[in-house]
Amino acid sequence: MARIFSSPAPPGTCSILAEFISRTSGPLKAANVSAAVRSEGQVQSLSNLGVNIVQVDVSNELAVKEAVVSNEIDIVIHTASAVDSHIVSALIKALGQRRESSGQENYFIHSSVATIFSAEGGWPFGEVRDTDPIFEKEKEIEAAHPVRKTGIVVTELAKAQGVTSFNIPVPQVYGRGSGEWRKLSVSIPAYIRTSIKHKVVYKFDKDGSPHSVHISDLVAFYVLLTEKILQKEPIPSGEKGYYFPISHRTHWWAVMERLAKALHARGLVMEPKPEVWPSDDIAAEYLGFQRRHIRAIGTSSGQLVPVNAYRLGWQPKWDEETFLASLDDEIQAVQELDTVKSTVFDNPASNE
């Protein structure tokens, strides 16, 4: 029986966990799922799900090794941090030790951030397909982004440890998640809460069109990938194991126009039209994002072409039209559920 280890602190992973344990047939039904948590509160929240709850400090290498080895983990789905290479190193080394003791193949699924493949994210090569030699190109970039550095560590260390790795650059996520923990995404709720607080919807001086995915479609991708692994299907991994789970683009100015009208109709902002941010510094301060990443978050577009993800058989259901039509639901979700702050680069797959 395969044993899967996931960290549900980011709600995107909570949604993945909820989908895993809801399966009544297929390879996931027979899998033994463990959920790594950081706090006692999370232990209590997830204790009734019927999964093995492991409270562990993922930054503690010895604790991680003990958790992985003692719980006989074969697959790790990692969404705890896209920027902390120490966490991924600890998890991959633990999997390597588990492989040595069990003699079985082990897998590491790493969640990254898609904006690092935009010009604003330091990507100089233009259009990129997930079937391109991405790893080699990333190694060429001298001033590597911390997210990129962590991804390189994943590929190199996993190979050295005999662990099969997959790199998932997650685009902008939206929609209400499922599971027992946080349920909101990062960017859209940040814009909504900021607009409500300051009574105005802001947009950047440059329009951006980032790649996007609804949380339900993202979860479906992780489920599909994990099922392929459990069925031992020969799919791209390691240096070729990049997957772009992208369903459509999102045009920020169109989003801000819709948000301004919807928030004004609720009496939450003063005007039904957005204004331009006075400065990037103010945008970073109000939204709660790091100043050095604010242009990438607010204005990037990128030219990512998903191939591997669709070759698996992934079929996302959401497009830009349905997303724009759902923005009033996004506002409602923030008003109902917005209790925990998140950071976009720590939790790439998050749906807090």
UniProtKB/TrEMBL annotation:
Gene3D superfamilies: NAD(P)-binding Rossmann-like Domain. InterPro entries: NAD(P)-bd_dom_sf (IPR036291), NAD(P)-dependent_oxidoreduct (IPR051783). Signal peptide: none annotated. GO terms for molecular function: aldehyde dehydrogenase (NAD+) activity. GO terms for cellular component: cytoplasm. PANTHER family: NAD(P)-BINDING DOMAIN-CONTAINING PROTEIN-RELATED, PROTEIN YEEZ. This is NAD(P)-binding protein. The lineage of its organism: Eukaryota, Fungi, Dikarya, Ascomycota, Pezizomycotina.
